[in-house]
Design brief:
The protein has helices at 2-6, 10-19, 36-50, 68-77, 92-97, 105-110, 121-124, 149-155, 160-165, 171-181, 203-213, 229-243, 312-322, 325-331, 340-343, 346-349, 357-369, 379-391, 400-415, and strands spanning 26-31, 57-62, 84-88, 128-129, 132-133, 136-142, 144-148, 189-192, 219-220, 223-224, 262-267, 282-285, 297-305, 371-372. It has 418 residues and is an alpha/beta fold. Strand 1 (26-31), helix 3 (36-50) and strand 2 (57-62) form a beta-alpha-beta unit. It is globular, with a radius of gyration of 22 Å. This is ABC transporter, substrate binding protein (Sugar).
Length: 418
């Protein structure tokens, strides 16, 4: 299905322009969050926009993260494109090359006091092509460790920030900590993957932080390097946590950090809202270092307008409204900004009622020193082609090098395919 999407013909795109079902003053905005806190904030934007556009109704449509690209592709191919939505950095090149996203540069430049130059050039790198702008990042959010301070206190252990201050916060230290804190009798695991989806929808988010911190990467240029000795050694650390230590949540099991059933996880600060009713103390810390040192990872997402939106002009206005300086400052509670004026402000350090200013400094430092997840024009196909291969990693007797060699054979075909 992804392959069919990438090969959309001009005729299919033309169909999308005439077959949309949205009414003239309605906007359909796709997201992958179901968080009440996030949706409440998004509806604040809708209400604010409606004050100057009283006949406009904006509906936020939640699509599960793992299904997001495929379902949007189906909607576009079926002639019912959303008006606008969220888009991850990994799929940006595909959608841009396929002529799916609208160039919103004229609208942004014409919007009073938008201050386009305030957007970080590095953050905009994936979303600009020459003078065209295909999206505006609303989130340049680093991965950070979330830890259960109550469990650490009970075990008499230093927390990750204390280890970091001593230069001792490594993947080895995380493994030891997870092993100590795991308690099978209480149903508590030591470590949970990102959003509990590390074996399917978030498998790349498991592999990339480990591999880069050990000095490797998924590919270099047009050559997959995932089967390097460095990458294999890095992923072996996590594999041993699952099958030797039995401290990490294994495939098929649940160990939700946010319900106190895992001592450590990593994700982005937007998930902190899930801890509003937590009955334990918690904190955040930088990602651990590997053999090559610290290698923070940034997940990026942008607001985009789909080219064949039946309400394109209105959608572009709403994008500009959401991503102006005031809008970005409002979203900073959940989504670290791409605007330099906001990221460097005291307001940003105090923007999240769930996190202290010192915790927000960790976020800012990880952004300043981090790199984005891998992206490629054929990224949806790469992910689809390697999904079954990566499933083979999560067995006790897995040959990691063999699995990665098979994955590289699939990845290399797409890296050289234009």
């Amino acid at each position: 299905m992804i392959m069919r999407f990438i090969k959309l013909t001009t005729a299919a795109l033309a169909l999308g322009m005439t077959a949309g079902v949205s009414q003239a003053d309605d906007l359909r905005f796709t997201v992958w969050t179901g968080s009440e806190a996030h949706l409440s904030m998004l509806n604040e934007f809708a209400d604010g926009f409606k004050a100057t556009h009283p006949n406009t109704n904006i509906t936020f449509e939640t699509i599960p993260f793992a299904d997001y690209v495929q379902k949007i592709s189906l909607q576009i191919g079926g002639g019912n494109p959303p008006d606008m939505g969220w888009m991850l950095e990994g799929t940006a090149p595909t959608f841009i090359q396929s002529n799916i996203l609208a160039d919103v540069s004229d609208t942004l430049q014409a919007t009073a006091n938008y201050n386009f130059e305030d957007l970080s050039p590095s953050a905009m790198g994936l979303w600009q092509k020459d003078d065209a702008v295909y999206g505006v990042p609303f989130s340049t959010s680093p991965f950070v460790i979330f830890y259960n301070q109550s469990l650490l206190d009970a075990a008499g252990l230093d927390n990750p920030n204390e280890l970091h201050a001593k230069g001792e916060w490594t993947w080895g230290a995380l493994r030891d900590m997870a092993d100590t804190l795991a308690d099978a009798e209480q149903g508590i695991y030591g470590f949970e993957t990102m959003d509990g989806q590390g074996y399917d929808g978030r498998v790349w988010e498991v592999l990339v932080p480990l591999v880069r911190s050990y000095g490797g990467d998924v590919w270099q240029g047009d050559t997959c390097t995932l089967n390097s000795a460095t990458a294999v050694e890095a992923v072996q650390v996590y594999h041993d946590m699952i099958f030797k230590d039995q401290s990490a949540v294994p495939p098929g099991e649940m160990g939700d950090f946010f319900n106190g059933k895992a001592a450590l996880t990593y994700t982005q600060i937007s998930r902190a809202s899930k801890l509003d009713e937590a009955d334990f103390d918690w904190g955040i810390a930088p990602m651990p270092s590997g053999k090559a040192g610290s290698a923070p990872i940034i997940g990026q997402a942008a607001v985009v307008v789909f080219k064949d939106s039946p309400n394109r002009a209105l959608a572009e206005e709403f994008l500009a409204y959401m991503t102006n300086e005031a809008g970005v400052a409002r979203m900073a509670e959940f989504f670290p900004p791409a605007r330099a004026s906001v990221l460097g402000s005291d307001a940003f350090l105090n923007s999240n009622s769930r996190l202290t200013p010192s915790a927000m400094r960790i976020v800012a430092n990880e952004i300043n020193n981090g790199s984005v997840m891998p992206s490629h024009v054929n990224m949806p196909v790469i992910k689809s082609a390697t999904r079954g291969t990566f499933d083979k990693l999560w067995k006790a007797d897995a040959d990691i090098e063999a699995v990665f060699t098979e994955a590289c054979s699939r990845i290399n075909k797409q890296l050289t395919r234009k």
